[in-house]
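Target protein
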Amino acid sequence: MNKVGVVLNTKGDVIGAHKGVYSYTIGQRKGFGIAGGKPLYVTSIDPVSNTIILGDDKELWKDGLVGTDTSWITGLPVDLPLRVQAKIRYRSEPADAEIVSFDRSNNQVIVRFLKPQRAITPGQAVVFYKDDLVVGGAWIKKSFSWNHAN
């Protein structure tokens, strides 16, 4: 499972090697042994191509996510967009967000954060709150920036 692969910069240049994509996470800074003038962070992991991309901290900040396998505790939302607080990390504070759409056919949700969030990580859970009550959650499939999505 841990197969050596390439590490790229955001321009697509090979800048190093890694010991398996499953040993790294979005936002990670250490463990690459790559010298550079500025800190580099894991901004993307592609398990299919066994590639890791490193970039600046600013590239970790996104204001949108796609979630899959969505579960609703309080029933399906009737009116969208639905203002919620969304939590993307166990120790993080919930952030103001909107559930923009929910596709029943593939159980997929699209969420827009009012302020960009750092290191929204595929494979992790996002939990939705309304007035301190859990209303639902999903598994993060991918993150994106709204200004680049349209």
Summary: The first strand starts at residue 5 and ends at 9.
